[in-house]
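Hi all, long-time lurker, first post. I run a small reading group and we've been trying to get comfortable going from sequence to structure in the token notation. Rather than ask abstract questions, I figured I'd post a concrete chain and ask someone more experienced to write out its structure so we can walk through it together at our next meeting. Sequence below, copied exactly:
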Amino acid sequence: MNLPPPSQGFTTAPAGAPLVHEVSAGRGASWWSEAWRLFKAAPGIWILIVILFMAVTLLVSLVPVLGWLVVQILTPVVTGGLMLGCRAIDRGEPLTVGHLVAGFSTQASPLMIVGLIYTLLAIACAVVIFGLVFMLFGASVLAQLFSVQDPVQIGTALGGLVLAFLIAALAFLLLFAPLVMAVWFAPALVVLRGVEPAAAMKLSFVASLRNVLPMLVYGLVFIVLAILASIPLGLGWVVLAPMAIATIYTAYCDIFEGPSVARPPAAPVT
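-- Answer (accepted) --
Happy to help. Here is the structure in token form:
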């Protein structure tokens, strides 16, 4: 992967940790074109991997609560394996279905710790959001909505319900956005650089924050591609989903490895 040199410099990382490069906003779109190259190298395998992952996820999710917890904790493990798959393609090696579970034999414990930290923080965020909305509105808005007959009063109740929804949405954005930023690059940092879970999440957050402009461009491109992928009965997602996974790797390479063509070896199996 030929990556241009960072255009805005870089930050100093702690001893032994990878540097966080600040890249130009346009790189957010380039991550998608570079992901397309990775997808083209093995389209059939990519699609099969995504189908298998979705099937297993849906099956496990059928178990109430516990299934959701398992999915949340193990998703970084699966993501880590797929980062190894992307690295294999980058080296001219084949992508295999085995990369879907490669994370379970490479840094499995640190990856599960990332998933556990994310899950606990996500639950804490949800509790805070629910508590905030309940404290501000309680059940009074819904009770008023279903107990009044006057159209004016119904409109007032609906207005309160919309306000509660907007506050919940804002709280969700403020709390979950940093959490997503912290987990975005963490699996790649764990499997490719051997970074410890907490340090990987911290580095991921810093990298996302310092590259907020390319991340925004990346997000806008994703929205456009998602709309296009959804038009033909959602069939475009069989291509977009693997590409979205690959963009985590291409963005990681750009931000943490800079303009290197020959990728360094992955972290040793533990």
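A couple of things your group might point at:
Residues 151-184 form the longest helix (34 residues).
The radius of gyration is 21 Å.
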